[in-house]
Write a structure and sequence with these properties.
Structural class: mainly alpha
Strand order of the largest sheet: 1-2
Number of helices: 5
Helix content: 55-70%
Amino acid sequence: MQIRAEVESPGRNIHRKGRGFSTDELAAVKLTVKEAREAGIIVDLRRKSKYSENITSLKVFKEDYAKQQAEKEKLRLKAIKENKKARKEAEKRKADYDVLQEKRLIEIEEERKKVQEEIAKREAETAEELSTDELAELDDLEGESVSTESAESPEEALEKLEGDLAESLGDEVTPTEAVAAPDGAKRVIKRVRKKPTSTSKGVSDKAEKKE
């Protein structure tokens, strides 16, 4: 918004547009040269005259300019207020995001602990199963040792084998009087060979002939 000063041509009383407002005209509306130039008013420092039309124009311009400046200041304050509000909202969003991130990290740590506990539990169950198998195997070994101990001794087995062999050959084993032997000592058995009978001899002869 710009205004132009009007002046009278000397000698002809004709109004024309001047180069600018004089300092006296600015002083009449209480404006300094600096304020006028900041408002966009052209100032003619060489002119010393003062016209009422120019003063009226400056008053109207000053009122309109003051309204514009007030509106601009209002908008500026509103923008500052909105910027502050937006900054607070941004800070709040950042704080909420940080809280969510921290919460997520805690959840991830809890999940990791649960996984580790589950792995440890499975390893313990596996170890317990192995221990159970080992105990079962140990029980089997103990059962075999018990059955071995309850079986006949080597001396008894040898005696039984010799008796079966003598029976098949027709011998008769006549044990002598049993003598109590200390624990762990071998028992001595005297065997008497019986002469083969005619029946057994005939059977043996037939077997030789067949061969």
